[in-house]
């Protein structure tokens, strides 16, 4: 089985979020970038688990500039067999998806596993878009995935519960929590990552369809109103009369 | 031109999130000086379909085809896109709910439309340009995204608007999208609905607890408070990792994201990863023994005190309030 895992680079969760150029650009000052958590913990590790069980190959793909090779090497250290970087500073998810789909068409892949959402734009876009560019079946928010022949059984989140569906491969599966057990790269993985193949390909996508007009930070930090521990009735009153939430 | 809402049905009933999408579509249509219509896939009564009119939809295009009984992103994307093309929609509105999150980007690609995912407020329309705000960086900032494509797709974040129900009814017209059996590649094997408790991601009220409770045997009071309030229960990653609580209760960066009207956090310090999953809640109450707990910085109301004293009192006071 040949599996493609798109990975994305995002600011670390603990980064201070700030903007420059009249609030039009994300400020990268003092920001540490990481592999998007759900791409790493659930999508990539699930792909590796499937390969370990059934044989095959795991390829990671990233759309971005050379500076992204740090997270690509980490994916190789965790256990991907090879990597592809599309040398392109994409302006929106549509361009990213178009690049991934165009590479996927060349590769004979059975499965593409994506993360849930990136922790920067929280938009859940790339998986669905890639599926549509390829005209493949897709399931998102998957917490269980098993593959048998050309069928996959996927348990996905629905409102108020979960649903288990069978889909025919090739397909795109979007991960959510618990799809796989996160792994930390070991020394052997880190050493071998240096020599695993990383291919750089040139971009082919058309223009972006959306852009960020501006960013905005919350106007001020919340002011916490304290209630004394021996006056809990006051909290109930405030929640009812002031906050109007009960 | 028109604005097209996708209204999803489950067992013949239109989902709550879809009424919100319909309302959003109608308000967007007002801004664009046009009308809002809706497309519904799968069986539903005419009365149910017409009820979309109460949220401002004038006409419902209904594909009453049994193959649409279960959500299939590929077939649904074809049908919704065909509806947008056939009925002259320039803007398609969906809910950013579990199925909408997968369907909307597919529809956007089919229509070569600019897509704004998780819009939290009505758009601004200036000529062919549409701009809408959405939360980014897990709620730590907001971005205004703009698109000027011929067709546009918007997915509205659930619980962003308070839809106002009017008295209108929508007319219903049959619609037969050109989908073939081969477009349906998803077969539902089983459904597992959580019963007896309020689903976490849809809850208006959430009571959540963490390591401060010291052990799983102490959750009785949390469950009792949640039951009294009709709230869902949640927990921090630390306690789901050690199996004090089930994984489906874990909220935060790597767990679920919730945005209830009220989030009560008991004995949770408020690590940034936890906040990322809850900071879109309307009101946050923090109960913690440690006055320096970072969660207080994100809280609207705080009690510095021992959960084992405060929570039982809160249950008692809430009962009094309810009885009053």
Summarize the topology.
The complex is a heterodimer of chains A (246) and B (324).
Chain A: E1 2-6, E2 9-11, E3 19-20, E4 25-26, E5 33-35, H1 37-54, E6 57-63, H2 69-78, E7 82-86, H3 93-107, E8 111-114, H4 126-134, E9 137-148, E10 151-158, E11 161-168, E12 171-175, H5 187-193, E13 198-201, E14 210-216, E15 225-226, H6 232-242
Parallel strand pairs in A: 1-6, 1-8, 6-7, 7-13, 8-12, 9-12
Antiparallel strand pairs in A: 2-5, 3-4, 9-10, 10-11
Chain B: E1 2-7, E2 9-10, E3 13-14, H1 16-32, E4 35-41, H2 46-50, E5 59-63, H3 73-86, E6 89-95, H4 100-111, E7 114-119, E8 124-126, E9 129-136, E10 141-147, E11 152-156, E12 171-174, E13 186-193, E14 205-209, H5 220-229, E15 232-235, H6 237-241, E16 262-266, H7 272-278, E17 283-288, E18 301-304, H8 307-323
Parallel strand pairs in B: 1-4, 1-6, 4-5, 5-12, 6-11, 7-11, 14-15, 14-16, 16-17, 17-18
Antiparallel strand pairs in B: 2-3, 8-9, 9-10
Helix pairs in contact in B: 3-4, 5-8
Describe the structure.
Chain A contains 6 helices and 15 strands. With 246 residues, chain A is an alpha/beta fold. In chain A, α3 packs across α4 (126-134). Chain A has helices at 37-54, 69-78, 93-107, 126-134, 187-193, 232-242, and strands at 2-6, 9-11, 19-20, 25-26, 33-35, 57-63, 82-86, 111-114, 137-148, 151-158, 161-168, 171-175, 198-201, 210-216, 225-226. In chain A, a hairpin with a 4-residue loop joins β3 (19-20) and β4. Chain A has one domain (2-213): HUPs (Rossmann fold). The radius of gyration of chain A is 21 Å and the shape is globular. Helices cover 28% and strands 31% of the residues of chain A. Chain B has 324 residues and is of the alpha/beta class. Chain B has 2 domains: 2-183, Rossmann fold (3-Layer(aba) Sandwich); 200-323, Rossmann fold (3-Layer(aba) Sandwich), CATH 3.40.50.1220. Chain B has a 7-stranded parallel β-sheet with strand order 7-11-6-1-4-5-12, sandwiched between helices. In chain B, β16, α7 (272-278) and β17 form a beta-alpha-beta unit. The longest helix of chain B has 17 residues, at 16-32. β15 (225-226) of chain A pairs parallel with β18 (301-304) of chain B.
């Amino acid at each position: 089985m040949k599996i493609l895992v798109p990975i994305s680079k995002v600011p670390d969760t603990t980064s201070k979020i700030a903007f420059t150029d009249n609030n039009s650009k994300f400020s990268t000052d003092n920001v540490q970038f990481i592999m998007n958590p759900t791409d790493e913990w659930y999508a990539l590790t699930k792909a590796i688990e499937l390969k370990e069980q059934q044989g095959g190959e795991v390829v990671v793909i990233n759309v971005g500039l050379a500076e992204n090779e740090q997270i690509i090497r980490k994916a190789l250290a965790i256990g991907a067999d090879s990597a592809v970087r599309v040398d392109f500073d994409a302006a929106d998810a549509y361009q990213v998806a178009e690049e991934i789909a165009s590479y996927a068409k060349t590769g004979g892949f059975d499965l593409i596993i994506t993360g849930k959402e990136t922790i920067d734009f929280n938009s859940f876009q790339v998986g669905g878009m890639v599926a549509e560019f390829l005209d493949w079946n897709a399931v998102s928010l998957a917490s269980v995935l098993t593959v048998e022949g050309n069928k996959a059984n996927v348990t996905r989140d629905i409102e108020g519960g979960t649903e288990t569906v069978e889909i025919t491969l090739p397909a795109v599966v979007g991960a959510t929590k618990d799809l796989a057990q996160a792994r930390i790269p070991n020394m052997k993985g880190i050493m071998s990552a240096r020599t695993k193949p990383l291919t750089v390909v040139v971009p082919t996508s058309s223009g972006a369809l959306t852009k960020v007009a501006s960013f905005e930070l919350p106007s001020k930090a919340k002011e916490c109103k304290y209630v004394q521990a021996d006056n809990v009735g006051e909290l109930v009153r405030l929640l009812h009369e002031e906050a109007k939430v009960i | 031109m028109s604005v097209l809402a996708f209204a999803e049905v489950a067992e013949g009933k239109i989902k709550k999130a879809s009424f919100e999408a319909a309302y959003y579509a109608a308000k967007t249509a007002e801004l664009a000086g046009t009308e809002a219509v809706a497309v519904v896939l799968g069986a539903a009564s005419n009365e149910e379909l017409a009820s979309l009119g109460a949220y401002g939809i004038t006409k419902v295009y209904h594909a009453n085809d049994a193959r649409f009984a279960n959500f299939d992103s590929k077939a649904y994307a074809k049908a919704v896109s065909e509806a947008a093309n056939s009925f002259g929609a320039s803007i398609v509105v969906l809910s950013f709910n579990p199925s909408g999150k997968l369907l909307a980007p597919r529809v956007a690609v089919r229509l070569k439309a600019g897509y704004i995912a998780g819009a939290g407020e009505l758009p601004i329309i200036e000529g062919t340009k549409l701009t809408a705000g959405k939360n980014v960086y897990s709620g730590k900032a907001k971005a205004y995204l703009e698109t000027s494509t011929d067709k546009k797709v918007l997915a509205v974040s659930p619980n962003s608007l308070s839809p106002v129900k009017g008295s209108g009814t929508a007319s219903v017209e049959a619609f037969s999208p050109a989908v073939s059996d081969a477009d349906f590649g998803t077969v539902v094997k089983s459904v597992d609905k959580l019963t007896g408790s309020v689903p976490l991601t849809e809850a208006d009220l959430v009571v959540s607890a963490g390591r401060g409770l010291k052990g799983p045997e102490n959750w009785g009071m949390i469950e009792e408070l949640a039951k009294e309030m009709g709230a869902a229960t949640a927990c921090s990653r630390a306690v789901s990792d050690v199996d004090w609580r089930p994984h489906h209760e874990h909220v935060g960066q790597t767990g679920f994201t919730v945005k209830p009207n009220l989030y009560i956090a008991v004995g949770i310090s408020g690590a940034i990863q936890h906040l990322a999953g809850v900071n879109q809640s309307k009101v946050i109450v923090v109960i913690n023994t440690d006055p320096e707990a970072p969660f207080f910085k994100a809280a609207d109301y705080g009690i510095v005190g021992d959960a084992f004293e405060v929570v039982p009192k809160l249950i008692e006071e809430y009962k009094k309030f309810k009885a009053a």
